[in-house]
Amino acid sequence: MTRRIGLPSRIATVMSGTILLFIVAVGICAYWTVHTLGRDGLIVSTRQVQHSLVDQTEYIQAMMLDYAKWDEAAHALRSHDLRWLYENIGLSADIGEPFQFVVIWGGPLAKDLAWMDDG
C-alpha cells in the first residue's frame, strides 16, 4: 500500500523548502555583503593612512628644511646678504609671509624686532 500525501502536506513541504532556501540565500548575501564591505573598508582605511603618512612626512621634511636654514638665515641677516635670503627663503622673507611668529633680537638691529601672522 502506498500512502498518498495530501495537497495541504505538499503545500507545507514546498513552503518549508522555499523558506529554508530563502533563509540560506539571505544568510549568504549578508555574509558576502559584510565581507565585501569589510575588505573595501580595509583598503580605503589603508589608503588613507598611507596618504596621511606621506603628507605628514612631506610636512615634517619641509619644516626640518626650514629649521635647517635658520642658522644660515641669521648669518645672512647679520651680514645683510639679501641675495642669499631671496634665493633660499624667497622674496616673502622680506615681507614676513613664510613665518607665523618671528622674533629677531641681539642682532645688528637697534632694537628687537618681532611680528606675528594670524595664519
What would you note in describing this structure?
- By secondary structure, the protein is mostly helical.
- It has a domain of 61 residues.
- The protein is 69% helix and 7% strand.
- The radius of gyration is 36 Å and the shape is rod-shaped.
- The mean pLDDT is 80.
- Keywords: Membrane, Transmembrane, Transmembrane helix.
Secondary-structure map with pairings?
Blueprint: H1 7-68, H2 70-78, H3 82-88, H4 92-95, E1 101-104, E2 113-116
Antiparallel strand pairs: 1-2
Concise description?
The chain has helices spanning 7-68, 70-78, 82-88, 92-95, and strands at 101-104, 113-116. With 119 residues, the protein is mainly alpha-helical.
Shape: rod-shaped
What does the average pLDDT come to? Answer: 80
**Percent of residues in β-strands:** 5-15%
Q: Kindly, what is the distance between the CA atoms of the first and last residues, rounded to a whole number of angstroms?
A: 95 Å
The number of distinct helices, counting runs of at least 4 residues, comes to 4
Number of strands: 2
Low-confidence parts: none
